[in-house]
Structures are given as C-alpha cells and as structure tokens.
Predict the 3D structure of the following.
Amino acid sequence: MGDQLASQSSPTGKPLPSVELVDLKGTTVPFNWPRLQGNELDYIRRSVEHGVTSADGPFSKAVVELLIDEVGCELALLTTSCTAALELSAMLLDLGPDDTVVVPSFAFVTSALAFTRQGAKVLFCDIEPETLALDPAHLSDLMDPSVRAVVPIHYAGVGCDLDGIEQVLADWPEASLIEDNAHGLFGSHRDRPLGSVGRMATLSFHETKNFTCGEGGALILNDQRDVDRAQVLYHKGTNRNAFLHGLVDKYTWQDTGSSFGLSDVLAAYLYAQLEQRESIMARRRHVWDRYRDLLTGQVEDLGVTLPVVPEGRVQAHHMFYVLLDRPDRRNEVLAAMRASGVMGTFHYLPLHLSPHGQTVSRRPTECPVSEDVSGRLLRLPFFTDLSDSEGDRVVAALLEALTATA
Ligand SMILES: Cc1ncc(COP(=O)(O)O)c(C=O)c1O
C-alpha cells in the first residue's frame, strides 16, 4: 500500500479527494500496467500553465501532425475515445433506420453500438479462425443494398484481410470501409499502414492501449471530401473551424454534431507517449516475441494454439493470446494462473448472442467461429514494461495450469 497523493485542503476548505497510490503490481503480474514513458508530466504541466487546455491546442496539433505523417491520412480529429470517433463516423455517414452496418460479432460493444445509437441496424459477421478478424467470405454472403458501412477490427493489432474485404466491397460502392483500428496503430498490411485503407479509421488511446492518455481516441479521415463536414460535426455542429482560420467572420450552427474534442492536457500526455513510439513498439515486440519463443514447442501437446500473423502483415503487438482446445478449460486455467499471481483474462463475448445485439440486428446471422473462439481465448499479461522475469513467471504459470487441466 502506498502514499496519499493529496492530503491538503481545497480552496473551499473541504479536504481534497484522497487518492491512495496502490502498487498495482505488488506480488502479482498485472494484466496491464501503464507507465510513464518519457515527458508526460512535463508536457501536462506545460499545457496547464500555457492555459489552452480545451481541444485543438498546441499539443493536439502536434499529435495530429504526427498521425497525418505516420498514417498518411488527410486529417486526424482527436476525440475523447475510440467510441466517440466511431460515433462521429456514423454521423458523417448520416446513417438512419434503413441503413445497415456490418460489424464482426467478435468485437467490443461500442464497435456496434456507435452505429445503432445513430439509428442504423447492424449485421453481425463471423471472423476468420486465424486472424480472428472479419471473414470476407461471410461478408460477401451478408452484403445487400442496405449496407452503408463495413467496420472490420484489426484484432490484436494484426491487419485483417483488407484485400479480401476490398474485393467484396468493389461490387458495393455505397458501402464505406471504416477500419476500427483501436488495436493496430503503426501496424501495416502489405506496406499500407493500418488505418490508411478505409474511407475512415478510428484509434483508441484508452489506458489499455499501446499509446495512452487515460481515455482518448481519434477519427482518421482518408477522403478529402469528408474533411470540411467532419470539422463541422466535430466542432459541435458549427463552422468554428472556418472561423478560426479566418474564412468567416463569425460562426454559427450549421449541421448535426457533438462535443468530441480531446482536452489539450490529455493530448500533452498522449504526445509524450507518441514521441517514444519507436522504443514502445520495440519493447512490445520483444515481449510478444519472447512469449512466442518460450511457448512454441511447449504448449501444442497441452492443447494450445498460438496466434498467427499472416505473411505481409506487420503487427502492432497489442496483445498476446492463446487458444485452448476446450472452452470448459479456459476459466479453470485462468483461475489457476490467478492463484499464482498471474492476471490473465478472456476477451469479447459474441455480440450476435448478446441481449441488445439481437434487438438491433437487421436479421439473425450465424457466427460459429466467433462463438468458438470467444470461449477458448485467453490473454496473457501484456504491457510495454513487462520484464523478462515477469514474462518467465507468466509462462511458468500458464504451463503449470495447462498441465494441471490437461
Ligand atoms: C476494437 C475496439 N474498438 C473500440 C474500442 C473502444 O475504445 P474506447 O475505450 O477508446 O472507446 C475498443 C476498446 O477496447 C476496442 O477493443
């Protein structure tokens, strides 16, 4: 147990909230452990002292420039979350009750919710057993004239089959590709950066992601034709951006929209992380490769499959998972690992079976691979600063749990 972060009184005389600094690690290997990577605290201080702490301040501009440069997009709009960026994409497409959006069933809730709250229906698509990402063959069966968007996820930071999906979409020009790239910033697919292929893409800077500012996200715009309207929706439905650039002498309500912008204080935090992108990516790669090397040849006879990265895809090393042979074993293995202080976890539950998912789908679909994988997938602790000795401990706990449950 640690120190008290705040013990003084506030200006009103009331005590400030007392935040106990708990050592997340203690004697365990936590599932995630976000750490300072460089200049975060200095930049946060500078942002607060500079006084421009709302959206679109100097640190936001620096992050946007960096993303434009790295992803090669037309514009990046920093948002309060990836969920908010998905919602902004749904607004930009003017989706309504007659429109359908195809999303993988094996997905985060808001990958679908962002579109249904705009009034659209969803169609749940199955995933490929190797990449655990949207299956183009099933997508092809699902397409109909009501489909306005297809939203694949680059699961675990490994590119989905973008070629296969683009091939299907070539016959459906009314359907836009939106990459949910919450996991895959700086990954690539046949030399195309993940997030640069769709009409739009979204990013997450949540605490659990490779680059974080606590909560944050971005909408990546790859089509110049979306830029002006996206700026209006992003700026609460007003032409404030045009005003700030001296293009109009006052700004007013023009369109739908909302308050999507990320505070510059959080952009300062995020910029410090992104500055360290080479070292962060290298260290995550080391953690991933080490898990793979230590487990290869050890786990196959214990009924475990390791993740697959197809040729031509550079992954973003967002997570390391294993697939067990039987779903009834997964929770037992997790419990045994936790008992020895190693905090593994599971992942998405299939959305096509969820109570709300069933009420918002255009029609029922079958997603057997999503159901199967969801029950068998186990994620190992994975974070940038995971040490070799912690990695060894995780592997030992997994092997012991697998042997005990074989
Ligand atoms: C694939 C995917 N999309 C979207 C999200 C939502 O991200 P955020 O928490 O930034 O809204 C997540 C969250 O983990 C996710 O895994």
Summary: Confidence is low (pLDDT under 50) at residues 1-6. The longest helix spans residues 277-295. The CA atoms of residues 164 and 349 lie 25 Å apart. The pocket of pyridoxal-5'-phosphate is lined by residues 81-83, 108, 110-111, 153, 180, 182-183, 204, 206, 217 (CB under 6 Å).
